[in-house]
Amino acid sequence: MKKLSIPALALASLTTYDLFQKEHSILRTFPVVGHLRYAVESVGPELRQYIVTDNNTERPFNRDQRRWIYASAKLENNYFGFGTDNVIDGTDGYPIIKTRTFSDLPARPHTENAFLPSAKILGGPRGRRKAFRPTSVANISAMSYGSLSAPAIESLNEGARLAGALHNTGEGGLSSHHRQGGDLVYQIGTGYFGCRTPGGEFSLPALLETIADSPVRTIEIKLSQGAKPGLGGVLPAAKVTEEIARIRGIERGKDCVSPSRHTAFGDVDSLLDFVETIADATGLPVGIKSAVGHLHFWDDLADAMADGSRGVDFITIDGGDGGTGAAPLAFSDHVSHPLFTALPLVQKIFHERGIAENITWIASGRTGLPDRALMAFALGADMVNVAREAMLAIGCIQAQRCHTGRCPTGVATQSTWLMRGVDPATKSGRTANYLTALRRDLLKLSDALAVAHPALATTDDIDVLRADGTFTTLTEAIGYEPGWGIPSERDRSEITRIMYSPV
């Protein structure tokens, strides 16, 4: 009797295992071949990208949007030919940006630098010692080291330096990978990583020590995030390496789950005391980041800030439709308002108190595409933060494996083998190219609207189509009053002067 070959023996063993295991019905019924179903399912998102979907079907970023980001990052042709393939007629809520025929502004020379600073001085209205005007309206949003790989963080930070943009550390603390020369926004989350006591409480001395020799320009207190509003951050055990555990002050190899809420403050009054304590100790502008649910908090915050004695320097509004973070499906799908609902809801509250102009407003949530960014500016944003779009610029293929630690492109993983695919020397340039292209297209849209800066766009500049073929202005759709959503007259005058002065 001939001996079974090794492949045949392996096949027989697999068949036997499949027939007698009780976890998977398909494998018990269809031994061996049933594994093909799981193999195809495991690469479903990748297959749909190339075989099933059209240019505008896939979410969160469709093929056209990804193509624009990829081409921009690689300095390839990011134009599109033969007209739009979007369904415009009969699409409810489709935005139309309205051009102007004539302009009192001088013609803007074409520039490859796409100089586009913030229309407001961050921390200026509250007189912070280290107030400054951000040199880019498009900046890199909060993505922690741990959630992203070391070379991904290095690529983003060096890219931010090349583009003159800010790079948010995310709640995971400040690592050596964040020190490639890019200016930083230091984020304080509920876990207080990098600024905590051994017991996990907030420590001001630890914060001062962490940022002492770093290029931190401003501090963001994360109240909640769009991926999972109302829950703390989650870093799966597979991503908690020895280095990350040391930076965060946690145990290696275990899930890192931040508390749902802060322990350093518990209401608006103590939050503002916390903000002012940090601002006084550091001299830096201090703001908050939050998704938007119940509006009681925002009413209370605006009321507490109305007299001008205490206040946040900026507010980052995060859309509640998910992000790079690992999150329960119900939270990504249903918890908190999407950005273009959330931003006007909060803006109205602060405009009614007459203090919106004293705050720098930052919009986050798929704002890394020119049309969506302009919509955010028209609704009152002064800057936009980009997260997943920046990941796409450095090689992400939207495989939607961020939560598993098995990102195939090495962007959102701690696997040494997988992260080899990210070369910071190359990817940092692509980050900068993408940010520059985003600013350049925003300048083009500004020129079409005959305004000096996208922050000067208003809700009157956008019409919203209805499914029945009629339309309304964005102003009417969201209920803004005249003058809402744009900077003060002083800021408008100053940014117009800056935009038309020699750089």
Tell me what the structure shows.
The protein is built from 18 helices and 13 strands. With 503 residues, the chain is an alpha/beta fold. The strands form three sheets. The protein has an eight-stranded parallel sheet with strand order 2-11-10-9-8-5-4-3. Strand 12 and strand 13 form a beta hairpin. Residues 138-448 form the Glutamate synthase domain.
Task: Provide keyphrases for this structure.
single chain, 503 residues, alpha/beta, TIM Barrel, 8-stranded parallel beta sheet, 3-stranded antiparallel beta sheet, 18 helices, 13 strands, 10% strand
In a nutshell, what does this entry contain?
The protein has 503 residues and is of the alpha/beta class.
**Alpha-beta classification:** alpha/beta
Q: Considering DSSP H and I runs of 4 or more, what fraction of the residues is helical?
A: 25-40%
**What's the overall geometry?**
globular
CATH topology of the largest domain: TIM Barrel
- How many distinct folded domains? 2
CATH homologous superfamily grouping of the largest domain: Aldolase class I
The CATH architecture of the largest domain comes to Alpha-Beta Barrel
Query: How much of the residues is beta strand, in percent?
Result: 5-15%
Q: Given the structure, what is the number of helices?
A: 18
Biggest β-sheet, characterized? 8 strands, parallel
How are the secondary structure elements laid out?
Layout: H1 6-20, H2 25-29, H3 34-42, H4 44-52, H5 63-73, E1 95-97, E2 138-140, H6 150-163, E3 166-168, E4 183-188, H7 204-211, E5 216-222, E6 234-235, H8 242-248, E7 256-257, H9 268-282, E8 286-290, H10 296-305, E9 314-318, H11 329-334, H12 339-352, E10 360-364, H13 370-378, E11 383-386, H14 388-393, H15 416-419, H16 424-449, E12 462-465, E13 471-473, H17 474-478, H18 489-499
Parallel strand pairs: 2-11, 3-4, 4-5, 5-8, 8-9, 9-10, 10-11
Antiparallel strand pairs: 1-12, 6-7, 12-13
